[in-house]
Amino acid sequence: MKLSVNDQEVVTGARSIEALVGEICGAEAAGVAVAVDGKIIPRGRWAETPLREGVRVMIIRATQGG
């Protein structure tokens, strides 16, 4: 399925947010937030939130800096 991840077209077999984050971030999912079509999805709902063709996903990773 085709969808937009951080404003780039992505083709993926992931069917849930959890699967997509695992595909993109691997085991480094700590400090990650996800929005689908502008709505933040709580981490506890990632596994149950399905993806649809054409949705816009933003994956935001917290970083430290000074």
Can you describe this structure?
This protein has a 5-stranded mixed beta sheet with strand order 2-1-5-3-4, with no helix packed on it. With 66 residues, the protein is α+β, with helices and mostly antiparallel strands. Helices cover 14% and strands 33% of the residues. It contains 1 helix and 5 strands; from the N terminus they run E-E-H-E-E-E. The mean pLDDT is 92.
Helix and strand topology:
Elements: E1 2-5, E2 8-11, H1 17-25, E3 32-36, E4 39-41, E5 56-61
Parallel strand pairs: 1-5
Antiparallel strand pairs: 1-2, 3-4, 3-5
**What's the number of extended β-strand segments?**
5
Terminal Cα span: 39 Å
Approximately how much helix is present in the residues? 10-25%
Task: Tell me what portion of residues adopts beta-strand conformation.
Answer: 25-35%
In round numbers, the mean pLDDT is 92
- Please provide the ordered H/E string of secondary-structure elements: EEHEEE
What is the strand arrangement across the widest sheet? 2-1-5-3-4
- Number of helices in the DSSP assignment: 1
Class from helix and strand fractions: alpha+beta
Rounded to the nearest angstrom, the radius of gyration is 11 Å
What does the main sheet amount to? 5 strands, mixed
Low-confidence stretches: none
What is the approximate shape? globular
